[in-house]
Specification:
- The chain has 451 residues and is mostly helical.
- It is built from 22 helices and no strands.
- The chain has helices at 2-5, 12-22, 28-54, 56-63, 67-76, 81-90, 97-111, 113-117, 121-135, 138-147, 156-184, 186-207, 234-238, 241-270, 276-306, 311-332, 339-351, 356-365, 373-384, 387-401, 405-430, 433-440.
Length: 451
């Protein structure tokens, strides 16, 4: 009885979903259906994030707003982004993933509506703030939902596909949204995204279920109830080098991505004199590079682990190195000449960091009990995405206060490079999953793989 009372509270829908899933742990078709839905979820997620940046120039021209004001609008997306991810993470063991993702997608649709009613700075900010609240938990909670369908040793490819959804989102949305903005006005892009978000929510409500690798373990043969689940103080978990290093790599990657979403389209148009369609093609190409790297590196990580390579080197060092390589390209960016060279450096600087996103979840998950994984994912996402609140506004201020916009962009890129290099080096030094798991006594927490 004492063991049962110590188990974390779980809502009936989550408990029922876990028990039903436990009865059919080999349901790979269902696992990959859920994966496909979550990939689509991330596609829509990043299309929502990208639309403001793609429409930056026409919005700034129509509403007569400065770079600083635009930077403020872009940063407002992250006002409650981190807090939302943190709060929802702590409720993830009590609310089913099906319900959480359904509510998020509905809020995405609602967030597009204010600017359709009245196009003004306050409504732009209101929509971005609401969107940030709804998208703050999206990456971590969709990854948490995905991990319920795969054992630890098989999460590399699904994780890559989930983060690959972000790359696909930008890859697909850049030309489509640019076409809508150019031919039908920037408001049409917001309207289409509202409809797409609503449709996804309705489909997910019918198909989304929680998997067998959940907080509630299947009953043992000699027991009529779930096994007790190990829980540790959050302070101990968060102070491990692996979690801290995972946050560092996420922080460095998020700084680059925040600058890319807010300012890269405007930079390409105003500084490199590219047409709107050339900008869309460039952004799609960068996203394609990210997708190729994700689909190449993550299965390679799984293969290395299968050969006995430690997680410290197979996933920890890889994510830190990816952020460092991107930081070096970012540092070289202001000193390069020629459009082609700058575009190549932009591809490395903004495309390579995507590798760090799935891997920082993989490494953090290895030192966290399953019952606390959602909460820790929320904390990692909350702290790792803080650059979104800072980088867009700082970049806008630098552009407005510098002698020339070009000088402002150069300073912003150098600051980003310094942050990324420090973050990547910290991740390489700190992430040691096996060592931290032994210290925390988590080796017995591994779920069995389906046979």
């Amino acid at each position: 009885m004492a063991a049962r009372s110590s188990a974390p509270p779980v809502d009936r829908s989550a408990r029922g979903s876990a028990r039903r899933s436990a009865d059919r742990p080999h349901d790979r078709r269902r696992a990959w259906l859920v994966t496909a839905m979550i990939v689509t979820f991330m596609v829509i997620n990043f299309a929502d994030k990208s639309v403001l940046g793609l429409a930056a120039v026409p919005i700034m021209d129509e509403l007569h707003i400065s770079n600083s004001t635009y930077g403020l609008i872009s940063s407002s997306f992250y006002l409650f982004f981190s807090l939302s991810g943190l709060v929802v993470g702590f409720f993830s063991s009590r609310i089913s993933s099906r319900t959480m993702l359904f509510v998020m997608a509905l809020l995405w649709a609602v967030a597009q509506l204010p600017v359709l009613a009245v196009a003004a700075v306050p409504t732009l900010i209101a929509g971005r703030v609401l969107l940030g609240v709804a998208e703050g938990p999206a990456a971590s909670m969709s990854m948490h939902a995905l991990y319920k369908w795969f054992p630890p040793e098989r999460r590399g490819l699904p994780s890559a596909l989930q983060i690959g959804g972000a790359a696909i989102g930008t890859l697909v949305s850049a030309p489509v949204l640019t076409w809508l903005i150019t031919d039908f006005g920037w408001r049409s892009a917001y309207a289409v995204l509202a409809v797409v978000s609503l449709l996804w929510a309705l489909v997910w409500w019918r198909t989304g279920h929680d998997g067998p690798y959940d907080e509630v373990r299947p009953p043992r043969a000699d027991s009529d109830g779930p096994r007790p689940v190990k829980r540790l103080p959050y302070r101990r978990l968060l102070l491990t080098g692996t979690v801290a290093g995972s946050v560092a790599s996420a922080f460095g990657a998020a700084w680059a991505l925040a600058v890319a979403h807010a300012w890269l389209p405007a930079y390409l148009r105003t500084q490199l004199d590219l047409s709107p369609h050339a900008v869309a093609t460039t952004i799609s190409a960068i996203s394609a590079l990210s997708l190729v790297l994700l689909l190449t590196v993550s299965p390679l990580v799984d293969a290395l682990k299968a050969r006995g390579v430690s997680s410290r080197w197979s996933s920890g060092a890889v994510q830190g190195a990816a952020v460092c390589v991107a930081g070096c390209a970012m540092a070289a960016f202001p000193f390069s000449d020629g459009v082609v060279v700058r575009l190549l450096l932009a591809g490395v600087a903004f495309g390579t960091v995507a590798v760090a996103i799935p891997l920082h979840y993989v490494t953090a998950a290895e030192v966290v009990p399953a019952a606390q994984r959602g909460a820790v994912f929320g904390i990692v996402a909350a702290t790792g995405t803080l650059p979104g609140l800072i980088a867009p506004f700082v970049t806008g201020r630098l552009i407005d206060t510098a002698d020339t916009p070009s000088a402002g962009y150069s300073t912003a890129f150098l600051i980003a490079a310094a942050v990324m290099l420090l973050a990547g080096a910290s991740a390489i030094a700190a992430i040691r999953p096996e060592q931290d798991a032994r210290r925390l006594g988590l080796h017995a927490e591994r779920a069995p793989s389906p046979d």
